[in-house]
What does this fold into?
Amino acid sequence: MSGLSSQTSGLTARVIPCLDVRDGRVVKGVRFQGLRDAGDPAERAAAYEAQGADELVLLDVSATPEGRGHALETVRRVRKVLSIPLTVGGGIKRLDDARHLLEAGADKVSVNTAAVLDPSILASLATDFGAQCTVLAVDAAQREGGGWEVVIKSGRERTGIDVIGWARDAVRLGVGEILLTSWDRDGTRSGYDLALLTAISDAVPVPVIASGGAAHPEHLAEALGAGASAVLAASIFHDGDFTVGDVKRVLAAAGYAMRT
It folds into this structure.
């Protein structure tokens, strides 16, 4: 299904609100910096499910920089109000970290920094919990001269690792899905990096979730057209610009199959 939009693949496209969490509160910034408060995670989760969200992503954005694990209580609180699939990331360094998150209510775990530092964790996660539970989060920054490199530690460190090669390696290790964030576009509302999305979607056979830069539903439609299987957004939902239902109506009118 690489490179195929839901218009041509016959698959249902997913709309996924993202909750970036720090100290038990939802936060939002630009390029992972200047974080501002955006509400209570459980309240946000319940509201987004009521609006028609297909899944939810919960990322502890300060866990890795602070050298700690994910705040499990936040996951438990969100799970209590949520019946749709929940992906949780942040602070996962070993199998036990993932196991605790799954026991707390996560359906999938998302790994970024730890996987770059030790790619074998991806194979271990896929072996123990299944590819369907194993999500690679890739934060991609543009390189001078073209292409993209992986950034880690919530955008604080550039690695020099080629994003396309890293995505292919991760799939070979057992990753079942890629959450692809454009570091350059994150929080800017300038639209997704469509060239990046197409490059990754064409390079791997697993679903790609587009993240970073949405300002309106048309941006989400562009991401699906570029090959994404799902579209993730935060600011447009947190700030009340659009509901999930608003977005789905626009995407359905554009010809994308939606779960209603």
Q: What stands out?
A: The CA atoms of residues 39 and 121 lie 33 Å apart. Confidence is low (pLDDT under 50) at residues 1-5. The chain is about 35% helix and 25% strand. The domain at 6-253 is CATH 3.20.20.70 (TIM Barrel).
